[in-house]
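Recap for those who missed Tuesday's class. We walked through two folding examples back to back. For each one, the amino acid string is listed first and its predicted structure tokens come directly after. Nothing is annotated here on purpose, so try labeling regions yourself before you check the end of the notes.
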Amino acid sequence: MGSSNARLCWLQSFLYGAIARAISTVVTYPFVRAKVIAQTSKDPTRASMLAIIQEEVAQGGVTGLFQGSGPEITRGVLSTAIMLSVKEKIAALNRHVLTMVLVGVAVKR
């Protein structure tokens, strides 16, 4: 690991944010899909998340758990990556302004 003072450029923030969101979406999407299926199901026996996931795997394989995940991954990855890169740009601007203010105060003394 690098120094705790290491700063990320906006592109690094964008890429790290995109990778992190893609991983988190892939991990959580099957559960989100199972929740939606449970909420929209008319059959009360489909209330168990585990039962829904098992049924989806039996019907469509593991890829059935990720049916419709493309738009969610795209939306999530782009929004998170943009948010983190903008945050990094704002943080850099704040550091620059704070440095200029502190230098100005030091010069006046």
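Example two. Treat it independently of the first, because the proteins are unrelated.
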Amino acid sequence: MSWDSYLDNMIAQSKDGSGGAHVDRACIIGLDGGSAWTTAGHGNALKLSPAEGASIAKCLKSKDFTPFQTSGIVLEGTKYQFLREEDGKLVLGKKKEKGAVTLQASKTAIVVGHCPEGGQQGNTNKAVGVIADYLDSLGM
């Protein structure tokens, strides 16, 4: 099964009233180990290295966000400043002139959305949440 259609859905969910999308890149990784569920071949794929995926998964699975607080959230080699976590499953980050990131865990996956600089991270949060909540409803 390809999970890439979920990226298209996430981008569509992030659109504002004028039709502008607030997710430009995204991926879904496994909560257990951080392996990619979506492919790097998707036009809007966020291409995490295996080490980046593993680091993100370790923090969200253990609910220990100290590594994010001390070393930031690293995606595609870019270090985003950790802003906060909510309920042990939602993580927000920001990098000036690079945009913002939203990560949300479901039962078995982590949905990651990137908001371009100047975009509305609130729309990104909503879109990531829709996908993560849907996966949760499927027991995933």
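Answers for example two:
The mean pLDDT is 96.
Helices lie at 4-13, 50-62, 66-71, 121-137.
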